């Protein structure tokens, strides 16, 4: 059986969503027989999307919405013939404050992937049921590094998606 390919893609202006992406990558690559790749959205080529078995997408919260660059990225995906259908998808986000958009962004990313016909997975715990999200600007989480509590959700999401990928044929 060929190795399964998990692609982790993100947009990040100030590095927090990138930190979350990195923890997801660590979780995914810990699974044997899975090739994990991590890339900012502007480096993703269509061919990479098409050859991936799973795509995990991350966006910062911008005015309680997906960052426009991430939405543009998803809007650019091929749709004719639904080539993304039945790929596994998952979402992550970081937001400045608690409950001012993180969850909305996860939901919107999930909905966009469902339009593409993808199969959606959440994280490995109830606390990451819609994907992995983290708070970056409100106390006590207003530190340079993303808090361990959020990085752990990211790791668990990456690992779960990679394991699910392996169990799919
Ligand atoms: C234009 C703009 C709008 C934002 N709107 C929100 C918001 O509505 N809710 C929120 O929680 N954070 C908001 N933030 C904060 C970012 O989501 C937060 O700092 C995030 O962690 C940045 O991710 P990055 O470091 O990967 O760029 C906003 C930031 C910017 C630049």
Automatic annotation (TrEMBL):
<keyword id="KW-0732">Signal</keyword>
<dbReference type="InterPro" id="IPR008254">
    <property type="entry name" value="Flavodoxin/NO_synth"/>
</dbReference>
<feature type="domain" description="Flavodoxin-like">
    <location>
        <begin position="6"/>
        <end position="169"/>
    </location>
</feature>
<dbReference type="GO" id="GO:0009055">
    <property type="term" value="F:electron transfer activity"/>
</dbReference>
<dbReference type="Pfam" id="PF03358">
    <property type="entry name" value="FMN_red"/>
</dbReference>
<dbReference type="GO" id="GO:0016491">
    <property type="term" value="F:oxidoreductase activity"/>
</dbReference>
<dbReference type="GO" id="GO:0010181">
    <property type="term" value="F:FMN binding"/>
</dbReference>
<dbReference type="InterPro" id="IPR029039">
    <property type="entry name" value="Flavoprotein-like_sf"/>
</dbReference>
<protein>
    <submittedName>
        <fullName>NAD(P)H dehydrogenase (Quinone)</fullName>
    </submittedName>
</protein>
<dbReference type="InterPro" id="IPR001226">
    <property type="entry name" value="Flavodoxin_CS"/>
</dbReference>
<dbReference type="InterPro" id="IPR005025">
    <property type="entry name" value="FMN_Rdtase-like_dom"/>
</dbReference>
